Amino acid sequence: LDTKSIRISDLTWPEYAARISDQSVVLLPVGALEQHGLHLPLSTDAIIAERLTEQLAARIDGIVLPTLTYGARSLARSGGGEQFSGTVNLDGSTLIALTRDIIREQARHGVTRFLALLGHGENDHFVAEGAELARRDPLASNMRILVMGWWQVLTTNDLTPLFPDAFPGWDREHAARVETALMMALAPDQVRLDRIGPVDAAIVPPYVMLPTPNGHVPEQGSLADPRGATAELGKGLAKIIVDRAAEIVRREFSLGNS
Ligand SMILES: [Zn+2]
């Protein structure tokens, strides 16, 4: 993928100004720095969000902001929680403020269509809140904002090839089969294939208990078994995500079908 005309950070200011005057969609990948088991890097959520956002931007002629590589607090039920080395959590108020400021600054330059593409479940409500606060600023009164997690565009049907058994649900999928397959497809060099193995049985309760008690989360950090992931299945899922996201963006922003 030629990202030269896709990444805002690679454009000169007149190039940026020209793209904005076309009412191009501006896209922000939002990730996290969070443990992802024994076989995936801490920046997994940022890498997946960035790659998918760039592919989407190429399809809709959009431009991509530098990735937010930190995210909201990792919860035990969906990310393993705070006890793993390397996880860096933003306070919710910090992520709200970051999102609000970035969107407001884009509005100041005349952007009217903004998409935040999330790679980390816990970011969802905070990014939506930042988007709403930005929208209340008179500068951004013309701004339309889409906040979308890549997993939100997938149906249970799409997941059948990866889960001939049963899909355990998105919370348990942390550093498990889906993220592993996407990383194998999008960033194969970053996957430690020899570290993909079974995970301990654990409770993983649906509520939040702080600090996370022992035995609530598998020690490996993956919340479900990552085995069964393949690059082939990951490529298939990535294609479905980008196709469907492009369809949603065109509809919500009333873009043509080019
Ligand atoms: Zn993740």
Helices and strands in order:
Layout: H1 13-21, E1 26-30, H2 44-60, E2 63-64, E3 71-72, H3 76-79, E4 89-90, H4 92-108, E5 113-118, H5 124-135, E6 144-149, H6 156-159, H7 177-186, H8 231-252
Parallel strand pairs: 1-2, 1-5, 3-4, 5-6
The site of zinc ion (ZN) has 6 residues, from helix 2.
Q: What fraction, in percent, of the residue positions are helical?
A: 25-40%
Task: Give the strand order of the largest sheet, numbering strands 1, 2, ... along the chain.
Answer: 2-1-5-6
Taking the alpha carbons of the first and last residues, their distance comes to: 19 Å
β-strand number? 6
Low-confidence stretches: none
How large a portion of the residues is in β-strands, by DSSP E?
A: 5-15%
Oligomer: single chain
Each distinct ligand = zinc ion
Mean pLDDT: 95
Class of secondary structure makeup: alpha/beta
Q: So what's the overall shape?
A: globular
Give me a quick take on this structure.
The protein has 258 residues and is of the alpha/beta class. The protein has 8 helices and 6 strands; from the N terminus they run H-E-H-E-E-H-E-H-E-H-E-H-H-H. The protein has helices at 13-21, 44-60, 76-79, 92-108, 124-135, 156-159, 177-186, 231-252; strands spanning 26-30, 63-64, 71-72, 89-90, 113-118, 144-149.
Structure overview:
The chain contains eight helices and six strands; from the N terminus they run αβαββαβαβαβααα. The chain is an alpha/beta fold. The strands form two sheets. It has a four-stranded parallel sheet, sandwiched between helices. A two-stranded parallel sheet has the order 3-4. Helix 2 (44-60) crosses helix 8 and helix 7 (177-186) packs across helix 8. The model has no long low-confidence stretch (mean pLDDT 95). Zinc ion binds at residues 36, 44-45, 120, 174, 179. Residues 36, 44-45, 120, 174, 179 line the site of zinc ion.
